[in-house]
Amino acid sequence: MTHADLPAPRIVSRDAHNISRKQISQNALRVLYKLNEAGFDAYLVGGAVRDLLVGGHPKDFDVATSATPEQVKALFRNCRLIGRRFRLAHVIYGPEIIEVATFRANTDDGTGDRELHEGGRLLRDNVYGTIEDDAVRRDFTVNALYYGVRDFAVLDYVGGWEDVQHRTLRLIGDPEQRYREDPVRMLRAVRLAAKLGFAIDPASAELIPRLAPLIAEAPPARLFDEMLKMFLAGHGETSFDALAQHGLLAAVFPETAAALVDDHDGRQRAMLRKALANTDERVRSGKTVTPAFLFAALLWPAFRRELGLLAEKGLDPMAMQQRAADRVTLHQAHRIAMPRRFSIPMQEIWLLQARFDIRQRKRVFRLLAHPRFRAAYDFLALRVTEQPELAEPVAFWTEAQTLSHDGLAERLAAAPHPVAPADETIAAAPRKRPRRRRRHTSASDSGTPDTAP
Ligand code: ATP
Ligand code: MG
1-166: which CATH topology? Predict the structure, then answer.
Protein backbone atom coordinates (compact mmCIF):
# COMPACT_ATOMS: atom_id res chain seq x y z
CA MET A 1 0.00 0.00 0.00
CA THR A 2 1.28 3.46 -0.79
CA HIS A 3 -0.12 6.67 0.57
CA ALA A 4 -1.67 7.39 -2.82
CA ASP A 5 -4.29 4.73 -1.98
CA LEU A 6 -5.22 6.50 1.22
CA PRO A 7 -8.35 8.54 1.74
CA ALA A 8 -8.19 11.72 3.84
CA PRO A 9 -7.35 10.96 7.45
CA ARG A 10 -9.95 10.54 10.09
CA ILE A 11 -9.52 13.41 12.51
CA VAL A 12 -10.58 12.63 16.06
CA SER A 13 -10.96 16.00 17.73
CA ARG A 14 -9.75 16.77 21.26
CA ASP A 15 -13.19 16.34 22.84
CA ALA A 16 -13.75 12.96 21.14
CA HIS A 17 -10.78 11.16 22.68
CA ASN A 18 -9.40 10.69 26.18
CA ILE A 19 -5.81 11.88 25.74
CA SER A 20 -4.94 14.86 27.87
CA ARG A 21 -1.69 16.81 27.97
CA LYS A 22 -1.30 15.96 31.66
CA GLN A 23 -0.57 12.35 30.77
CA ILE A 24 2.18 13.27 28.36
CA SER A 25 5.79 13.76 29.33
CA GLN A 26 6.63 17.47 29.68
CA ASN A 27 9.75 16.89 27.65
CA ALA A 28 7.85 15.30 24.79
CA LEU A 29 5.46 18.28 24.80
CA ARG A 30 8.44 20.65 24.74
CA VAL A 31 9.81 18.88 21.67
CA LEU A 32 6.43 19.02 19.90
CA TYR A 33 5.92 22.75 20.59
CA LYS A 34 9.44 23.66 19.58
CA LEU A 35 9.22 21.78 16.29
CA ASN A 36 5.84 23.39 15.57
CA GLU A 37 7.23 26.85 16.36
CA ALA A 38 10.06 26.25 13.91
CA GLY A 39 7.45 25.54 11.24
CA PHE A 40 7.65 21.74 11.16
CA ASP A 41 4.86 19.23 11.61
CA ALA A 42 5.35 17.14 14.71
CA TYR A 43 3.26 14.48 16.40
CA LEU A 44 3.35 12.03 19.21
CA VAL A 45 3.07 8.63 17.57
CA GLY A 46 3.22 4.88 18.06
CA GLY A 47 3.04 3.07 21.37
CA ALA A 48 2.48 6.21 23.44
CA VAL A 49 -0.68 7.30 21.60
CA ARG A 50 -1.95 3.72 21.54
CA ASP A 51 -1.31 3.18 25.24
CA LEU A 52 -2.91 6.50 26.23
CA LEU A 53 -6.03 5.66 24.21
CA VAL A 54 -6.45 2.37 26.08
CA GLY A 55 -5.83 4.04 29.42
CA GLY A 56 -2.27 2.80 29.88
CA HIS A 57 0.89 4.56 30.99
CA PRO A 58 3.38 4.81 28.13
CA LYS A 59 6.95 4.03 29.10
CA ASP A 60 8.35 6.27 26.40
CA PHE A 61 7.16 9.00 24.08
CA ASP A 62 8.15 8.97 20.44
CA VAL A 63 7.80 11.91 18.10
CA ALA A 64 7.44 11.89 14.31
CA THR A 65 8.19 15.07 12.39
CA SER A 66 8.63 16.61 8.97
CA ALA A 67 12.03 17.95 10.10
CA THR A 68 15.11 15.97 8.99
CA PRO A 69 17.44 14.65 11.70
CA GLU A 70 19.87 17.47 10.91
CA GLN A 71 17.11 20.07 11.27
CA VAL A 72 16.13 18.54 14.61
CA LYS A 73 19.73 18.64 15.74
CA ALA A 74 19.97 22.30 14.80
CA LEU A 75 16.95 23.10 16.99
CA PHE A 76 17.96 21.25 20.16
CA ARG A 77 21.29 21.63 21.92
CA ASN A 78 20.65 18.40 23.85
CA CYS A 79 20.32 16.31 20.70
CA ARG A 80 22.28 13.34 19.36
CA LEU A 81 21.84 11.62 16.00
CA ILE A 82 21.95 7.85 16.13
CA GLY A 83 21.34 4.75 14.04
CA ARG A 84 22.14 3.52 10.58
CA ARG A 85 19.14 1.45 9.60
CA PHE A 86 16.94 4.16 11.06
CA ARG A 87 18.58 7.54 11.45
CA LEU A 88 17.00 9.09 14.49
CA ALA A 89 17.38 12.14 16.68
CA HIS A 90 17.50 11.63 20.42
CA VAL A 91 16.62 14.71 22.44
CA ILE A 92 18.03 14.13 25.89
CA TYR A 93 16.56 15.49 29.11
CA GLY A 94 18.52 13.93 31.96
CA PRO A 95 17.29 10.36 32.24
CA GLU A 96 14.53 10.84 29.66
CA ILE A 97 15.16 10.50 25.95
CA ILE A 98 12.59 11.69 23.44
CA GLU A 99 13.08 9.83 20.19
CA VAL A 100 12.40 12.05 17.20
CA ALA A 101 12.05 10.35 13.82
CA THR A 102 11.59 12.03 10.47
CA PHE A 103 8.49 10.91 8.51
CA ARG A 104 9.66 7.93 6.51
CA ALA A 105 8.37 6.07 3.50
CA ASN A 106 8.23 2.35 2.85
CA THR A 107 8.29 2.71 -0.93
CA ASP A 108 11.37 3.29 -2.96
CA ASP A 109 11.31 5.83 -5.76
CA GLY A 110 15.06 5.46 -6.19
CA THR A 111 15.95 8.73 -4.47
CA GLY A 112 16.38 7.40 -0.99
CA ASP A 113 18.78 5.31 0.93
CA ARG A 114 17.16 1.90 1.12
CA GLU A 115 18.32 -1.67 0.94
CA LEU A 116 16.24 -4.82 0.58
CA HIS A 117 17.26 -8.41 1.25
CA GLU A 118 16.36 -10.99 -1.47
CA GLY A 119 13.57 -12.39 0.68
CA GLY A 120 11.93 -8.97 0.87
CA ARG A 121 13.45 -8.14 4.24
CA LEU A 122 14.28 -4.52 4.91
CA LEU A 123 17.90 -3.87 5.74
CA ARG A 124 18.12 -0.12 5.60
CA ASP A 125 15.37 2.36 5.42
CA ASN A 126 16.14 6.06 5.34
CA VAL A 127 13.71 7.27 2.70
CA TYR A 128 12.02 10.37 4.04
CA GLY A 129 8.40 10.96 3.16
CA THR A 130 5.09 12.47 4.14
CA ILE A 131 3.04 11.73 7.22
CA GLU A 132 0.88 9.43 5.04
CA ASP A 133 3.99 7.49 4.01
CA ASP A 134 5.06 7.35 7.61
CA ALA A 135 1.71 5.93 8.70
CA VAL A 136 1.63 3.07 6.21
CA ARG A 137 5.19 1.90 6.86
CA ARG A 138 4.35 1.27 10.53
CA ASP A 139 3.42 -2.24 11.62
CA PHE A 140 -0.06 -2.24 13.17
CA THR A 141 -2.90 0.18 12.59
CA VAL A 142 -3.10 1.01 16.30
CA ASN A 143 0.59 1.97 16.20
CA ALA A 144 0.00 4.52 13.45
CA LEU A 145 -2.05 7.16 15.26
CA TYR A 146 -0.71 10.71 15.49
CA TYR A 147 -1.43 13.22 18.23
CA GLY A 148 -0.53 16.84 17.61
CA VAL A 149 -0.39 19.87 19.91
CA ARG A 150 -1.65 22.40 17.36
CA ASP A 151 -5.22 21.17 17.76
CA PHE A 152 -4.84 18.20 20.16
CA ALA A 153 -6.56 15.93 17.64
CA VAL A 154 -5.67 12.36 16.79
CA LEU A 155 -4.99 11.69 13.08
CA ASP A 156 -5.75 8.26 11.66
CA TYR A 157 -4.76 7.25 8.11
CA VAL A 158 -5.11 3.48 8.40
CA GLY A 159 -8.13 2.62 10.55
CA GLY A 160 -6.25 2.47 13.83
CA TRP A 161 -8.90 4.42 15.72
CA GLU A 162 -11.58 1.83 14.91
CA ASP A 163 -9.18 -0.98 15.78
CA VAL A 164 -8.42 0.57 19.18
CA GLN A 165 -12.18 0.69 19.84
CA HIS A 166 -12.48 -2.97 18.84
CA ARG A 167 -9.26 -3.92 20.62
CA THR A 168 -7.83 -5.46 17.49
CA LEU A 169 -4.25 -5.70 16.35
CA ARG A 170 -4.16 -5.56 12.55
CA LEU A 171 -1.15 -5.28 10.26
CA ILE A 172 -1.22 -2.37 7.86
CA GLY A 173 -1.25 -3.55 4.23
CA ASP A 174 -0.71 -7.08 2.98
CA PRO A 175 0.08 -9.24 6.04
CA GLU A 176 2.33 -11.72 4.25
CA GLN A 177 4.42 -8.98 2.69
CA ARG A 178 4.69 -7.13 6.00
CA TYR A 179 5.83 -10.26 7.86
CA ARG A 180 8.33 -11.08 5.13
CA GLU A 181 9.77 -7.55 5.27
CA ASP A 182 10.33 -7.97 8.98
CA PRO A 183 9.56 -11.33 10.62
CA VAL A 184 9.98 -9.81 14.09
CA ARG A 185 6.53 -8.31 13.50
CA MET A 186 5.13 -11.77 14.29
CA LEU A 187 6.66 -11.56 17.75
CA ARG A 188 5.47 -7.99 18.14
CA ALA A 189 1.93 -9.09 17.26
CA VAL A 190 1.97 -11.69 20.00
CA ARG A 191 3.64 -9.41 22.53
CA LEU A 192 1.42 -6.40 21.92
CA ALA A 193 -1.74 -8.54 21.92
CA ALA A 194 -0.69 -9.97 25.30
CA LYS A 195 0.28 -6.57 26.67
CA LEU A 196 -2.86 -4.77 25.54
CA GLY A 197 -5.33 -7.63 25.86
CA PHE A 198 -6.13 -7.17 22.15
CA ALA A 199 -7.08 -9.89 19.68
CA ILE A 200 -4.92 -10.34 16.60
CA ASP A 201 -7.03 -9.87 13.49
CA PRO A 202 -7.53 -13.30 11.84
CA ALA A 203 -5.84 -12.24 8.58
CA SER A 204 -2.77 -11.17 10.56
CA ALA A 205 -2.87 -14.17 12.93
CA GLU A 206 -3.45 -17.10 10.59
CA LEU A 207 -0.24 -16.59 8.62
CA ILE A 208 1.97 -16.72 11.67
CA PRO A 209 2.40 -20.51 12.07
CA ARG A 210 3.41 -20.83 8.41
CA LEU A 211 5.78 -17.86 8.37
CA ALA A 212 7.25 -18.50 11.83
CA PRO A 213 10.45 -20.10 10.46
CA LEU A 214 11.39 -16.73 8.89
CA ILE A 215 12.24 -15.56 12.39
CA ALA A 216 15.44 -17.57 12.11
CA GLU A 217 16.67 -14.86 9.72
CA ALA A 218 16.23 -12.03 12.19
CA PRO A 219 19.38 -10.69 13.86
CA PRO A 220 19.91 -12.60 17.14
CA ALA A 221 20.69 -9.40 19.05
CA ARG A 222 17.35 -7.93 18.03
CA LEU A 223 15.56 -11.11 19.10
CA PHE A 224 17.25 -10.89 22.49
CA ASP A 225 15.88 -7.35 22.95
CA GLU A 226 12.46 -8.49 21.81
CA MET A 227 12.52 -11.36 24.33
CA LEU A 228 13.29 -8.96 27.16
CA LYS A 229 10.37 -6.76 26.11
CA MET A 230 8.18 -9.83 25.93
CA PHE A 231 9.12 -11.47 29.22
CA LEU A 232 10.36 -8.69 31.49
CA ALA A 233 7.57 -6.16 31.06
CA GLY A 234 4.86 -7.68 33.22
CA HIS A 235 3.00 -9.84 30.72
CA GLY A 236 5.39 -12.73 30.22
CA GLU A 237 3.02 -15.54 31.10
CA THR A 238 0.34 -14.50 28.61
CA SER A 239 3.02 -13.80 26.01
CA PHE A 240 4.40 -17.31 26.46
CA ASP A 241 0.97 -18.86 26.01
CA ALA A 242 0.42 -16.74 22.91
CA LEU A 243 3.83 -17.72 21.48
CA ALA A 244 2.89 -21.37 21.87
CA GLN A 245 -0.63 -20.84 20.55
CA HIS A 246 0.62 -19.15 17.39
CA GLY A 247 3.30 -21.74 16.69
CA LEU A 248 6.18 -19.37 17.45
CA LEU A 249 7.83 -21.18 20.35
CA ALA A 250 9.95 -23.42 18.13
CA ALA A 251 11.10 -20.35 16.18
CA VAL A 252 12.59 -18.66 19.24
CA PHE A 253 13.39 -21.55 21.61
CA PRO A 254 13.71 -24.64 19.38
CA GLU A 255 15.08 -26.98 22.04
CA THR A 256 12.64 -25.92 24.73
CA ALA A 257 9.81 -26.41 22.24
CA ALA A 258 11.15 -29.90 21.44
CA ALA A 259 11.35 -30.75 25.15
CA LEU A 260 7.80 -29.57 25.76
CA VAL A 261 6.50 -31.92 23.07
CA ASP A 262 7.51 -34.78 25.39
CA ASP A 263 6.17 -33.07 28.51
CA HIS A 264 3.26 -35.47 28.82
CA ASP A 265 2.21 -34.59 32.36
CA GLY A 266 2.56 -30.86 31.63
CA ARG A 267 4.84 -30.26 34.61
CA GLN A 268 7.70 -28.66 32.69
CA ARG A 269 5.29 -26.25 31.10
CA ALA A 270 3.70 -25.58 34.49
CA MET A 271 7.11 -24.77 35.99
CA LEU A 272 7.96 -22.44 33.13
CA ARG A 273 4.63 -20.62 33.39
CA LYS A 274 5.10 -20.31 37.14
CA ALA A 275 8.52 -18.73 36.58
CA LEU A 276 6.98 -16.24 34.17
CA ALA A 277 4.05 -15.52 36.49
CA ASN A 278 6.49 -14.87 39.37
CA THR A 279 8.49 -12.57 37.12
CA ASP A 280 5.34 -10.68 36.08
CA GLU A 281 4.45 -10.30 39.75
CA ARG A 282 7.91 -8.94 40.55
CA VAL A 283 7.66 -6.44 37.69
CA ARG A 284 4.26 -5.29 38.91
CA SER A 285 5.54 -4.71 42.43
CA GLY A 286 8.60 -2.84 41.18
CA LYS A 287 11.16 -5.51 42.13
CA THR A 288 14.22 -6.24 40.04
CA VAL A 289 14.18 -9.04 37.51
CA THR A 290 17.19 -10.53 35.79
CA PRO A 291 17.51 -11.90 32.27
CA ALA A 292 19.75 -14.68 33.68
CA PHE A 293 16.99 -16.10 35.85
CA LEU A 294 14.42 -15.64 33.09
CA PHE A 295 16.51 -17.54 30.55
CA ALA A 296 17.42 -20.18 33.14
CA ALA A 297 13.69 -20.90 33.31
CA LEU A 298 12.96 -20.57 29.58
CA LEU A 299 15.78 -22.95 28.68
CA TRP A 300 15.45 -25.34 31.64
CA PRO A 301 13.37 -27.84 29.64
CA ALA A 302 16.08 -27.73 26.95
CA PHE A 303 18.80 -28.26 29.57
CA ARG A 304 16.97 -31.23 31.10
CA ARG A 305 16.39 -32.70 27.67
CA GLU A 306 20.06 -32.36 26.81
CA LEU A 307 20.97 -34.09 30.10
CA GLY A 308 18.67 -36.92 29.13
CA LEU A 309 20.36 -37.23 25.76
CA LEU A 310 23.83 -37.17 27.33
CA ALA A 311 22.91 -39.62 30.10
CA GLU A 312 23.68 -42.59 27.94
CA LYS A 313 27.27 -41.53 27.39
CA GLY A 314 28.38 -42.53 30.86
CA LEU A 315 29.99 -39.20 31.70
CA ASP A 316 30.77 -38.06 35.20
CA PRO A 317 27.65 -36.18 36.45
CA MET A 318 29.31 -32.80 36.88
CA ALA A 319 30.98 -32.97 33.48
CA MET A 320 27.69 -34.01 31.96
CA GLN A 321 25.89 -31.02 33.42
CA GLN A 322 28.53 -28.60 32.26
CA ARG A 323 28.40 -30.10 28.80
CA ALA A 324 24.61 -29.96 28.66
CA ALA A 325 24.66 -26.34 29.81
CA ASP A 326 27.26 -25.42 27.21
CA ARG A 327 25.41 -27.13 24.39
CA VAL A 328 22.06 -25.55 25.19
CA THR A 329 23.70 -22.14 25.46
CA LEU A 330 25.57 -22.61 22.19
CA HIS A 331 22.57 -23.87 20.24
CA GLN A 332 20.32 -21.13 21.56
CA ALA A 333 22.87 -18.45 20.66
CA HIS A 334 22.23 -19.13 16.96
CA ARG A 335 18.74 -17.76 17.46
CA ILE A 336 18.95 -15.34 20.38
CA ALA A 337 22.13 -13.49 21.29
CA MET A 338 22.29 -13.59 25.04
CA PRO A 339 25.25 -11.57 26.31
CA ARG A 340 27.73 -13.58 28.39
CA ARG A 341 26.98 -11.49 31.44
CA PHE A 342 23.61 -13.24 31.43
CA SER A 343 24.46 -16.69 30.02
CA ILE A 344 27.18 -17.29 32.63
CA PRO A 345 24.92 -16.69 35.65
CA MET A 346 22.17 -18.64 33.86
CA GLN A 347 24.48 -21.65 33.71
CA GLU A 348 25.48 -21.14 37.33
CA ILE A 349 21.84 -21.28 38.37
CA TRP A 350 21.53 -24.62 36.58
CA LEU A 351 24.80 -26.10 37.80
CA LEU A 352 24.18 -25.13 41.42
CA GLN A 353 20.97 -27.16 41.47
CA ALA A 354 22.83 -30.44 42.00
CA ARG A 355 24.59 -29.01 45.03
CA PHE A 356 21.33 -28.63 46.94
CA ASP A 357 21.35 -32.42 47.39
CA ILE A 358 24.53 -32.36 49.44
CA ARG A 359 24.37 -31.91 53.22
CA GLN A 360 28.03 -32.19 54.09
CA ARG A 361 28.72 -29.42 56.57
CA LYS A 362 31.55 -27.79 54.66
CA ARG A 363 29.70 -27.88 51.38
CA VAL A 364 26.49 -26.54 52.87
CA PHE A 365 28.32 -23.49 54.18
CA ARG A 366 30.14 -23.04 50.91
CA LEU A 367 26.90 -23.12 48.92
CA LEU A 368 25.21 -20.62 51.27
CA ALA A 369 28.09 -18.22 50.69
CA HIS A 370 28.00 -18.59 46.91
CA PRO A 371 27.21 -15.27 45.20
CA ARG A 372 24.55 -16.98 43.09
CA PHE A 373 23.01 -18.87 46.04
CA ARG A 374 19.85 -16.78 46.26
CA ALA A 375 18.99 -17.05 42.57
CA ALA A 376 19.73 -20.78 42.58
CA TYR A 377 17.61 -21.27 45.70
CA ASP A 378 14.69 -19.35 44.13
CA PHE A 379 15.09 -21.59 41.12
CA LEU A 380 15.03 -24.71 43.30
CA ALA A 381 11.78 -23.49 44.85
CA LEU A 382 10.35 -23.09 41.37
CA ARG A 383 11.32 -26.63 40.45
CA VAL A 384 8.92 -28.03 43.06
CA THR A 385 6.20 -27.41 40.46
CA GLU A 386 7.92 -29.93 38.23
CA GLN A 387 9.29 -32.25 40.90
CA PRO A 388 7.20 -32.22 44.10
CA GLU A 389 9.83 -34.34 45.91
CA LEU A 390 12.03 -31.23 45.97
CA ALA A 391 9.84 -29.79 48.72
CA GLU A 392 12.18 -31.41 51.28
CA PRO A 393 15.41 -29.74 50.09
CA VAL A 394 13.54 -26.45 49.68
CA ALA A 395 12.43 -26.71 53.32
CA PHE A 396 15.99 -27.52 54.41
CA TRP A 397 17.58 -24.62 52.54
CA THR A 398 14.85 -22.24 53.62
CA GLU A 399 15.60 -23.09 57.23
CA ALA A 400 19.36 -23.06 56.66
CA GLN A 401 19.19 -19.39 55.72
CA THR A 402 17.47 -18.48 58.98
CA LEU A 403 19.92 -20.28 61.29
CA SER A 404 23.08 -18.87 62.80
CA HIS A 405 26.36 -20.48 61.82
CA ASP A 406 26.40 -22.58 65.02
CA GLY A 407 22.71 -23.34 64.79
CA LEU A 408 23.12 -24.69 61.30
CA ALA A 409 26.18 -26.69 62.30
CA GLU A 410 24.17 -28.27 65.12
CA ARG A 411 21.27 -28.96 62.85
CA LEU A 412 23.55 -30.73 60.38
CA ALA A 413 25.24 -32.75 63.12
CA ALA A 414 21.89 -33.78 64.63
CA ALA A 415 20.33 -34.93 61.42
CA PRO A 416 23.04 -36.13 59.11
CA HIS A 417 21.70 -36.46 55.65
CA PRO A 418 23.12 -39.10 53.36
CA VAL A 419 25.39 -37.57 50.79
CA ALA A 420 23.45 -37.84 47.61
CA PRO A 421 25.13 -38.20 44.26
CA ALA A 422 25.50 -34.75 42.82
CA ASP A 423 23.01 -35.26 40.05
CA GLU A 424 20.29 -37.10 41.90
CA THR A 425 17.35 -34.77 41.46
CA ILE A 426 18.34 -33.32 38.14
CA ALA A 427 19.35 -36.26 36.04
CA ALA A 428 16.94 -38.74 37.60
CA ALA A 429 14.15 -37.14 35.59
CA PRO A 430 12.65 -39.84 33.42
CA ARG A 431 13.44 -38.86 29.86
CA LYS A 432 11.11 -40.72 27.63
CA ARG A 433 13.39 -41.16 24.74
CA PRO A 434 12.40 -43.20 21.74
CA ARG A 435 14.64 -46.25 21.86
CA ARG A 436 15.26 -46.92 18.24
CA ARG A 437 15.57 -43.51 16.75
CA ARG A 438 19.00 -42.02 16.96
CA ARG A 439 19.05 -38.36 17.80
CA HIS A 440 21.04 -35.83 15.94
CA THR A 441 24.17 -34.82 17.84
CA SER A 442 25.89 -31.56 17.19
CA ALA A 443 29.33 -30.73 15.92
CA SER A 444 30.20 -29.37 19.35
CA ASP A 445 30.13 -32.94 20.55
CA SER A 446 33.65 -34.06 21.35
CA GLY A 447 35.01 -37.54 20.78
CA THR A 448 32.99 -39.39 23.40
CA PRO A 449 31.61 -42.50 21.74
CA ASP A 450 27.88 -42.35 21.28
CA THR A 451 26.57 -45.38 23.08
CA ALA A 452 23.02 -44.86 21.91
CA PRO A 453 21.69 -47.88 20.06
P1 ATP B 1 6.11 -0.77 23.31
O2 ATP B 1 6.92 0.47 23.47
O3 ATP B 1 4.96 -0.91 24.18
O4 ATP B 1 6.97 -1.97 23.29
P5 ATP B 1 5.73 0.25 20.69
O6 ATP B 1 4.66 0.02 19.67
O7 ATP B 1 5.93 1.63 21.17
O8 ATP B 1 5.44 -0.74 21.86
P9 ATP B 1 8.40 0.42 19.77
O10 ATP B 1 9.38 -0.66 19.48
O11 ATP B 1 8.70 1.41 20.83
O12 ATP B 1 7.05 -0.33 20.10
O13 ATP B 1 8.11 1.13 18.39
C14 ATP B 1 7.53 2.41 18.27
C15 ATP B 1 6.69 2.51 17.01
O16 ATP B 1 7.50 2.28 15.85
C17 ATP B 1 5.59 1.46 16.90
O18 ATP B 1 4.43 1.85 17.58
C19 ATP B 1 5.38 1.37 15.41
O20 ATP B 1 4.61 2.45 14.94
C21 ATP B 1 6.78 1.52 14.89
N22 ATP B 1 7.45 0.22 14.74
C23 ATP B 1 8.16 -0.44 15.66
N24 ATP B 1 8.63 -1.61 15.20
C25 ATP B 1 8.20 -1.70 13.93
C26 ATP B 1 8.36 -2.67 12.90
N27 ATP B 1 9.04 -3.79 13.12
N28 ATP B 1 7.77 -2.42 11.71
C29 ATP B 1 7.09 -1.28 11.49
N30 ATP B 1 6.90 -0.34 12.41
C31 ATP B 1 7.45 -0.52 13.61
MG1 MG C 1 7.54 2.34 22.45
Answer: Beta Polymerase; domain 2 (3.30.460)
